[in-house]
Structure formats: structure tokens, C-alpha cells
Amino acid sequence: MTTFSANLGFLWADLPLPDAIRAAKAAGFDAVECHWPYDTPAEHVAAALAETGLTMLGLNTLRGKAGENGLAALPDREPEARAEIDRAVDYARRIGCGSVHVMAGFAEGDQAHQTFLGNLDYACRAARPHGITILIEPLNRYDAPGYFLRTSDQAASIIAAIPHDNLALMFDCYHLQIMEGDLSRRLAAHREIIGHVQIASVPDRGTPDHGELDYRHIMAVLRDLGWERPLGAEYKPQQPTDQTLGWLPVLRSV
Ligand SMILES: O=C(O)[C@@H](O)C(=O)CO
Ligand SMILES: [Mg+2]
């Protein structure tokens, strides 16, 4: 049976994070994940996780100044990028969260590529003692124009260049359908480096039961590939989240 993680960056985003965790539990999710939890003390999040029995699967590094979308590929910003990596790894460690998405930022070119490699090497070393995986995620050109990481192949070549086994691809079906399509073959080609899978409808980033992607098919592909971890529901609810969950029992029963 496929299991699902509620992305609390979008779902129940109006609630304090501990209450969002409780709401995800009450709605029947199997796990949670978030974007930027840092305004909430880690011990409050850890307590809500312990109370509900849910695990926080992932969180992101902070994006930087207003208008920025991560720092890790920005030349000459290594001290800030690494401080954010340290902050994220420490927070993840304190709440028992298994992965940290290191956000690349708006950049291009070889210097950005080299900077990203250096910062990812740093992140993998910082995360390893805590059993934490570092994730990198290609984002689509419409939501994040100019974002350094755009395709699964680019992510794969970066992962191959880093000599650590705790670096993996966040395969967000929403972004990669927009950028590349051909998702069944993309999932198979990159199976060994995928660390987390996220879902939402395309193109409107709504509930995963409509739009140009049929997630019943994607779920069958993932099952055939031996994927058993929760899929991250990272969609933007157009109504209060509790009123948008009709897709959950339907996809769960597939
Ligand atoms: O897809 C997304 O936007 C998120 O997974 C993320 O972490 C970057 O904002
Ligand atoms: Mg995503």
C-alpha cells in the first residue's frame, strides 16, 4: 500500500507547526515534512511528533535574503550557505528528521556549479554523523525562473560528482513533469539516487487527483521499482486543507 506524507509548508500552513502535525495525524497521513520550521522551537515540534507517532521526513535550508531561493550555488556566499546548512542539520537532528533539502538558489555557470559541489560536500560531511541524507531538488522554470538546479539529469551528474553516499535526489513529480515529462522513464533511470518523491497536480499544483499526471500510474511505476517510502503531498490547497483530502483514501486504495 502506498503511504503519504503531508507537506506542512503548504498543508495546514495556517496552523502553528505542532498543530499542523496533529492535524496531519488526525487526517490519516503516515508522515509529515516541512519547508522552514525554524520559527518554532525544535522541542515543540519534537513533542508533537512524539505525541502523534509521526516522523518528520524532511526540511529545507533557509532561502537567504528577500527574493533569494537558497544560497548553496551562489559564488562568494559560502559562509552564509554553510551556516544555514549547519542550522538545518542541527534542527533536523533535534527532531529526528532524516533529510535536509539544501536549496541551491538563483545562479548559473561553472562557478555556481563548483560552489554548489563544495557546499554539498560540506553538507554531506555535516549530516553524516547524524544519519541525515542531503537532498537536492530541481525546480521548474515558471515557479523559480533562474534557479540553478533544473533537471533530474543535472542533479544526477552533481550527485555522481560528490564522493558521499548521503546525497540524493528529491524527485518532485510536479516540477519534473513541467521541466522534462517522461516521468516513468525518469523515475526508473534515477531510481538508485532518489531520496524522496513529492506529488501535486500539473499544471496547477493542486490535489494529486486531477491534471495532466495520473498518479495511479506513477504509483504503480514506483511500486514496480520497489519504492516503499511515503509520497510527499506537496500541493497548494485552494480551500481549508481538511476540505481538500478526498484524494487521500482514493489514492491510498490504488
Ligand atoms: O517543490 C518545492 O517547492 C519544495 O519542495 C521546496 O522545497 C522548494 O521550495
Ligand atoms: Mg518539492
TrEMBL record:
Keywords assigned: Isomerase
Family matches, as Gene3D superfamilies: Divalent-metal-dependent TIM barrel enzymes
Xylose isomerase-like TIM barrel domain boundaries: 21-248
Family per similarity comment: Belongs to the hyi family.
Name the record gives this protein: TIM barrel protein
Organism: Paracoccus cavernae
